[in-house]
User: Which sequence fits this backbone?
């Protein structure tokens, strides 16, 4: 045999072997062999584009799921994970105590303001009017106003 036909025969046989291996991975062994026997390397490329079967996907997921408990145990988490949904005989909203230091508000109408903090003066009625705030009665001009009375005629 000359080198060219030998190379073609080896390539064809190699693609058939690769089609078998890829067929086992995808769950279509016979399709992989048939496509590569008929079409050679082109059949291998076409077969590589096919999806895996559901059974192969399920077996792969099962192997992954079986390895999870060991990995989770090594990480220090509880396994199996707890369901976010309560059991049918369990109250979905158990009573909880309020956060630390929180108390029920007083009934309406009985609220009294707390005294000012030590070292701070309380705001008196009229502060900010008539120049008592130290700004000559200018105060806040609001959004878009000119500061200090600029633009007023």
Assistant:
């Amino acid at each position: 045999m000359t080198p060219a036909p030998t190379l073609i025969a080896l390539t064809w046989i190699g693609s058939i072997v690769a089609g078998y291996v890829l067929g086992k991975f995808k769950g279509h062994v016979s399709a992989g062999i048939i496509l590569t026997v008929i079409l050679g390397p082109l059949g291998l490329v076409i077969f590589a584009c096919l999806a895996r079967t559901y059974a192969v996907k399920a077996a792969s997921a099962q192997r992954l799921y079986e390895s999870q408990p060991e990995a989770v145990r090594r990480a220090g988490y509880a396994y199996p994970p707890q369901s976010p949904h309560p059991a049918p005989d369990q109250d979905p909203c158990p009573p909880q105590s309020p956060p630390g230091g929180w108390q029920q508000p007083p009934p309406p109408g009985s609220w009294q303001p707390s005294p000012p903090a030590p070292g701070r003066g309380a705001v008196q009625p009229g502060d900010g009017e008539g120049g008592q705030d130290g700004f000559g009665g200018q105060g806040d001009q609001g959004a878009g106003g000119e500061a200090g009375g600029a633009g007023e005629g």
